[in-house]
Design a protein that fits this description.
Helices cover 34% and strands 4% of the residues. With 99 residues, the chain is mostly helical. It has a domain of 39 residues. A hairpin with a 2-residue loop joins β1 and β2. The longest helix is centred in the middle third of the chain and has 19 residues.
């Protein structure tokens, strides 16, 4: 279990960067150090919550099936489908040459 309220120092930042395969310069490390500390402090506020009675949730929104039933319906005939195109040949759509 990670330590609570652990301060982020340059050594920890560089170790995390190495694990992420990031080559940080000294200037980048100095820039990111306060940003990472601020982010961790924001997440530490979650430790203040009493979540013992709560069930884990893996989806923030309930998943529902939005697909319609697959019912057989009347469809276009071949003649109707080809009616508005001039690009047809032998009862099929004629597309651009591929090769």
């Amino acid at each position: 279990m990670p330590e609570k309220n652990k301060k982020v120092d340059k050594e920890l930042l560089l170790r995390v960067a190495a694990n992420a395969r990031l080559n940080l310069t000294g200037a980048e490390a100095e820039e990111f150090l306060p940003q990472l500390q601020e982010t961790l402090e924001a997440f530490s506020k979650l430790d203040e919550l009493d979540a013992a009675k709560e069930q884990p949730s893996f989806q923030p929104i309930k998943l529902t099936n939005v697909m319609r039933q697959d019912n057989v319906e009347k469809c276009l005939s071949q003649e109707q489908a080809l009616r508005n195109t001039k690009h047809r040949k032998n009862g099929y759509f004629l597309g651009p040459r591929v090769v």
